Amino acid sequence: MIQALVVGGGSIGKRHLRNLLSTGRTAAIVEPREDRRAEIATKHPAARIFATLDEALAAERYETGFVCLPTAYHLPPALEMARRGMHLFMEKPVAASVEGIPELLEVVESRGLVGMTGFCMRFFRPLMKAKELLTEGRVGRIVTARSFTGAYLPDWHPWEDYRTFYMAKKEMGGGVLLDECHAFDWMQWLIGPIQGVFSVVGTLSDLEVTSDDVCEVIARFGPRTVGSIHLDMVDRSLRTEAEIIGTTSTLRVSMRQHKVELYSHENRKWQDWEFEPSYEQMYIDEINHFFDCVAKKTKPMSDLRDGYRVQRVIDACARSSETGRWVAVD
Questions:
Q1: CA distance 72 to 174
Q2: Which of 32, 49, 176, 214 is the most exposed place for a label (fewest CB within 10 A)?
Q3: pLDDT per residue as tens digits for the range 248-272
Q4: With 90 as the cut, is the pLDDT of residue 83 above it?
Q5: Comparing C-alpha atoms, which of 269, 249, 277, 285 is closest to residue 133?
Q6: What angle do CA 125, 314, 186 make, to 5 degrees?
Q7: What sign results for the dihedral spanned by CA atoms 49, 53, 55, 57?
Q8: Whole-angstrom distance, CA of residue 262 vs CA of residue 240
Q9: Starting from the edge strand earliest in sequence, which strands make up the sheet with 269-274, in order?
Q10: From CA 215, how far away is CA 150, in angstroms rounded?
């Protein structure tokens, strides 16, 4: 049995394939594009390569499936693999809408499968340090928080025309509201569930895209905790930051600088922690955690229900932007 079938040979699919093989696991990949199959064959001769999921499933048995397609195409292969008893690693977001996710959850849970959502930032050392400080109570009661994610789309994949990248195409599940949903996950992981949102989502820049490129969200986390989440694919300064203000301290995380800072309100002094850049290790830690959960039949750090929770926040943001009203997250 092959340990992993990666469905989708784009950038994240190739990254997972590379890390699966480098960690001593067996893996195969499905990619419909001939040029990508040729590239993968050259770089990873140990991997079996198929043009379709049907071909792959007919040829071998697999322990797990990695869903790495553009977001709009996630659910059909995920359902097919879960029905065959394969544990699932789903790239985020789980789907382009909430529709169909309860069916996937029912199949995964009724068969006792492990289902993980690929919120890799939970394995990012600065965010893990922030989580540790919050868990220790170093910030006090959280009063307000904000998250900022800005990255210029043409800089993401400089080797290809951004207009052909799925992020530029609404019909393929692109756009910041869906694809930059890491922020919805880490804010809920650090602070707690988002209970309601007011949002503006739109295509506001001069980029040649059909997907949304700016999203502003005011989020309520509880009766005495409010925050904001900004997403864009316009800002060329490439920033990803989070700030959490509590009753005893202020906590800041700079994902680009790999730095965490804590300001004591009592002592009026900053304390900081810096980390070596480790993006690749983050992805390796993520898949090691997934296979550890598969071996032990334990719940992943971010399971499919966490992905479903983020999807409901995304859905609420879209409905708020359409109606101009606050929307509760059910």
A1: 8
A2: 32
A3: 999 999 999 999 999 999 999 999 9
A4: yes
A5: 249
A6: 15
A7: positive
A8: 17
A9: 269-274, 259-264, 249-254, 239-246, 142-150, 225-232, 214-222, 196-202, 327-328
A10: 10
Tokens standing for residue 222: 């509880």
pLDDT tens profile 58-71: 999 999 999 999 99
pLDDT at position 85 is: 97
Residue ranges of alpha helices (H) inside the chain are: 11-22, 34-43, 53-59, 75-83, 101-110, 125-135, 153-156, 176-179, 182-190, 279-296, 304-323
The most distant pair of C-alpha atoms in the chain lies apart, rounded to whole Å, by 65
d(CA 312, CA 330): 7
Which residues lie below 8 Å from residue 79, measured CB to CB, with a gap of 6+?
Answer: 100, 103, 104, 107
- In the structure encoding, which two tokens stand for residue 92, read together? 């985020």
Give the sheet arrangement for strand 48-50, strand by strand: 48-50, 27-30, 2-7, 62-67, 87-91, 115-118
From the number of C-beta atoms within 10 Å of its C-beta (0-12, 13-18, 19+), residue 35 rates as exposed
